[in-house]
Amino acid sequence: REIVSSLAVKTAVYGADPNWGRVIAAVGNSGCHMDEGKITIWLEGAEGRILCFQGQPVAFDEDMAKAMLLDREVRFGVDLGLGEAAATAWGSDITEEYVKLNSLYTT
Prior knowledge:
Helix content: 25-40%
Strand order of the largest sheet: 3-2-1-4
Structural class: alpha+beta
Number of strands: 4
Radius of gyration: 15 Å
């Protein structure tokens, strides 16, 4: 849930910036046990792209990754490399319109 609620990740997606470091930072911010040298991160989809493998950058087609980040639905896969447990979390985007809409009224 930390990844999908991270403003750093949301702004990277909004800007179509395949900055996988923001995803690792969100994982670290979650407080879970992690070993940066075991984490693999990828963009899921028909043209899935590995962004980092076992904590190391992987050469990838940046234009293809940016195009995937512009899709209506963006899915990151994260493998902590620490076991077999799995979880899924869904979030929403953040755009200039969202910020403006939510800053113009009070409840």
